[in-house]
Design brief:
Aminopeptidase, 3 domains, alpha+beta, 418 residues
Length: 418
């Protein structure tokens, strides 16, 4: 019998580290931490960060898997809500394909349902595995690799300055302001903030106006040759900006690196950032037929999941659904959480919703929890799902109304890694 127990104890962590190293061998070697350093890091996280907890799965008193759970807050249409996160899901190499990971995720759901949290997220080691468990895709990440001259050169970069650990509160304040305005952003935890300044490879610059900053950039350098120290790429790890003027000052800085930097790597969820850049080609000279020049490489990563459908929609009673007036029955299929296999009637008047007890409605919409989780966040639209046969609508004349009801003008953004 397998048993999940809350919180790993000190004597459990070295065994958990062995499991983690086997599950993620890329963590070891080179400049990566040793097993003892990993153990110290995990214990420090649990003992000093109230938002992080480690859980283990035992069978016959032997640890066979574990995970790290996070208590986050996320901007859901300008309302901060609690959201659960899971990371570092690791299974003993000898126990693969024995549903250990599934049992861990089941317990992950249980933990946050008991906390009355309705929404969770993770970064998948395999998207298809978690899609089968009801997780829907979040926003794509687009990785650009462009020459410094591709960044527009503005009139000045005089407000840019380096930050030190003593300026952490300024960075935190700036990030909090941006997160409060951007749908999908997570608030930073104290340990996440501290890690930015603890990494010796990080350079941190900011646009300073008076006693506060209006944007910052965290970056590092990657060498491109073992024999030529002059060949380096600049890697942007985090870039936050509050105004177009601040964005242009940072861009001017990047443009000025042309003599030292070969290419600049920028990961962004902004779909149309290529309008800002000059030459967006990534240097591969690859053409997609007929003549489409290879630019950003895109990937799927963050995945969302509703674990309490009715509770989640009750969180949205303060959100206006685009002024729509409509009553529809939402039929949800959830193969993992039986309590989510439910039908609720949502009544919207001028975009304001309430859960109704009525047995009459205009239309029925049937959808899997996977697609619903992406839809409510605005990653995908009703019309797209309808054409892909991922949603069933009892009366097609309501497709447009439902499309407008769920339409999100600003897709979610999330730069929190966990």
């Amino acid at each position: 019998m397998k048993v999940v127990e809350k919180l790993l104890k000190e004597e459990d962590f070295i065994r958990f580290v062995d499991i983690v190293v086997g599950a993620y061998p890329g963590r070891m070697g080179g400049l990566q931490p040793t097993k003892e350093q990993l153990k110290a890091l995990f214990m420090h996280n649990q003992n000093n960060d109230a938002s992080i907890h480690y859980y283990g799965l035992w069978e016959e008193n032997k640890l066979v898997g574990g995970m790290r759970l996070h208590d986050f807050e996320m901007n859901l249409f300008s309302k901060m809500i609690p959201i659960g996160g899971v990371g570092l899901v690791a299974v003993d190499l000898l126990r693969k394909k024995e549903k250990v990971a599934k049992e861990l995720i089941d317990y992950f759901f249980k933990v946050f349902l008991e906390k009355n949290v309705h929404f969770v997220a993770l970064y998948p080691f395999r998207p298809d595995f978690y899609k089968k468990m009801g997780f829907g895709y979040g926003p794509k990440m687009h990785q650009y690799s462009v020459e410094p001259s591709s960044f527009p050169k503005g009139a000045t970069k005089k407000h840019l300055t380096f930050l030190t650990a003593q300026d952490q509160h300024k960075l935190a304040d700036c990030y909090r302001r941006v997160a409060s305005r951007k749908h999908g952003m997570f608030l930073k935890t104290e340990s996440e903030l501290a890690s930015i300044f603890k990494n010796p490879q990080n350079y941190i610059i900011a646009a300073e106006k008076g006693d506060s900053i209006q944007g910052y950039m965290v970056f590092s350098f990657n060498k491109q040759s073992e024999t030529n120290f002059l060949l380096n790429n600049l890697v942007i790890k985090e870039w936050i900006y509050e105004t177009p003027e601040v964005l242009l000052e940072f861009s001017t800085f990047l443009n000025s690196q042309v003599d030292q930097v070969n290419r600049i790597e920028w990961n962004t969820q902004e779909e149309n950032i290529h309008f800002f850049l000059g030459d967006v080609r990534n240097g591969t000279n690859h053409l997609i037929p007929s003549v489409y020049h290879a630019s950003a490489v895109s990937g799927v990563g963050l995945m969302y999941r509703i674990i309490n459908v009715q509770g989640f929609f009750e969180e949205l009673t303060t959100h206006n659904f685009n002024g729509q007036t409509l009553t529809f029955k939402l039929t949800v299929k959830d193969s993992l959480l039986v309590e989510n296999n439910q039908q609720i009637v949502i009544k919207a008047i001028d975009g304001n919703i309430k859960i109704s007890n009525s047995t009459t409605y205009d239309v029925e919409m049937a959808i899997d929890i996977t697609e619903l989780s992406s839809l409510v966040m605005g990653v995908v639209t009703v019309q797209e799902l309808f054409m892909l046969s991922k949603v069933k609508i009892s009366d097609e004349q309501y497709v447009q109304s439902l499309h407008l009801f769920f339409l999100v003008l600003n897709k979610p953004t999330c730069i929190t890694a966990f």
